[in-house]
Amino acid sequence: MRKLIYMTAVLLLAACSSPKDMKVRMHTTAGVIDLCLYDETPKHRDNFIKLVKEQQFDSLLFHRVIKDFMIQGGDPTSKNAPAGALLGEGDLGYTIEAEFMPQIHFHRRGVLAAAREGDDVNPTKASSASQFYIVWGKVYTKEQLDAYKEYYQRRTGRELTVTPEQEAVYTTVGGTPHLDGEYTVFGEVINGLEVVEKIQSVACDENDRPLEDVRIIKVEMIK
After folding, report:
1. Does the pLDDT of residue 26 top 70, yes or no?
2. Which residues of 148-183 are buried (b: 16+ CB within 10 A; e: fewer)?
3. What is the pLDDT of residue 219?
4. Predicted pLDDT at 210
5. With a threshold of 0.70, does the pTM exceed it?
6. Structural domain of residue 187, as residue ranges?
7. What is the pLDDT of residue 102?
8. How many other CB atoms are there within 10 angstroms of residue 2's CB atom?
9. Is the CB of residue 61 less than 8 Å from the CB of residue 87?
10. Is residue 190 assigned to a domain?
11. Please, what sign has the CA dihedral across residues 132, 134, 186, 138?
12. Taking the CB of residue 65, how many other CB atoms lie within 10 A of it?
């Protein structure tokens, strides 16, 4: 059954299908994750490739992990961080212009997206230069998704638009629909979704940092 679930996820996460698509391999202490970067988000794609080639991600931690939500890494200060240190504020001194495409690339399970500062200090929703996250999320029933849309509107005053395609994914594969149109999605896992599942399940402290470091050993370009 587990293999069938992952096969279904791979079939649905099929935006990366061209031999020309840019792909990266992330070696972690929990296993290997292969990612494809979307051509439709060129600013984020090119910046991520630049950081990979500069080895900026090597030895960094997944410093923020929330079960049934996502795993986050890319804080440059995490490389030599002592146990228990509060992480998440590090960056590279610049931002990337938002490239939202929520009708095409949305927060389904397994996508790669850019972290960012909050709206109060970042009204344009520009992305962090280096911090990223990989979505895990949850699977909704249609009734749960409809109830969540109503809750979201009451809480934020904004309507949460979910297309029929998005609903089909959120009710079968899963994801985090409330992030759509708020954070730039710029890639997806093409191999290693089980590694993401493993990481999102680790025990964490009150600041969502794993109690035992989950480290990105290195990231490299692959064909």
Report:
1. yes
2. bbeeeeeeeeeebebeeebeebbbebbbbbbbbbbb
3. 98
4. 98
5. yes
6. 2-13+20-135+180-222
7. 87
8. 8
9. yes
10. yes
11. negative
12. 23
Alpha-carbon distance 159 to 126, whole Å? 21
Q: Which residues pair with 31 in a beta bridge?
A: 28
Q: What is the pLDDT of residues 47-88, one digit of tens each?
A: 999 999 999 999 999 999 999 999 999 999 999 999 999 999
Which CATH number goes with the domain that contains 109? 2.40.100.10
- Give domain status of residue 217, yes or no: yes
Which residue type does 54 have?
Answer: E
Q: Is residue 58 domain-resident?
A: yes
pLDDT tens, residue by residue, 5-23: 443 444 344 467 666 789 9
**Taking Cα atoms as reference points, which of 74, 90, 46 lies closest to residue 130?**
74
Helix (H, G, I), strand (E, B) or coil at 44: helix
* φ/ψ (deg, to 5) at 78: -80, -10
Question: Looking at the 3D structure of the chain, how many domains does it have?
Answer: 1
For helices 2-12 and 193-200, angle between their N-to-C axes, nearest 10 degrees: 110
- Specify if 173 maps to a domain: no
The number of residues in the chain equals: 223
